[in-house]
Known about the structure:
By secondary structure, this protein is α+β, with helices and mostly antiparallel strands. The protein has 5 helices and 10 strands, in the order βααααβαββββββββ. It is elongated.
Amino acid sequence: MDGDTVGDMITITRKMIINDDLGALSQIPEMFGRLAAETIEQDGFDLLKRNRTKMFADANRNRVKTNKKLDSFGLNEAYRLFKEMTDKKGRPINVEPNYLLIPPALITDAWTLLNSVYVNQATDKPTGDRNPWANRFEVVDTPYISATQGKGETAGSDDEWYLLPKPSDVSLFSISYLDGRETPIIEQEQAAFDVLGVQMRIYHDFGINEEDPKGGVFSPGK
């Protein structure tokens, strides 16, 4: 599990308070809340990328090995792998995939593939045969898995993509919070004696846990 107390602090001087004509300082709690949400997202996607080899190992049968590109053939292979997943007793898990998770570089391919009523199966252009994938999955694009993010074991890619179910059905990872508190704690106090002003701090206790490899199918894209 990746878990710890994370936080940040800001000092607001008396001069800043007097000059705050636009009320920008009142937005600090909202800024802190956004920072907390972004921290959870960053840690979650880093954990996903670090665990690609283990979570999508050959033994789990949830890694696309042929037709890896995001097109009608690749999506068909990912869907087949997902639907053929079984529980510990060898029975189908009977869960539907709902989300196509992609880096921004694949957004045009994803929209063309999923929003076109007709598609040429040979070229994936929006003409030809009726498209079996039209409106089939919800596209979720995030820069956290793109080639611009991470290094080494957390390096992203502009080719990789995932087929995922609803987290309520089965999930690759889960988030837990200390004492069940999902919102960060924001506190305010007078600044140190040599500073005229106040200090605000935010801290949040959460952990991200590995759950079930059956919570998704992964394709390296090439």
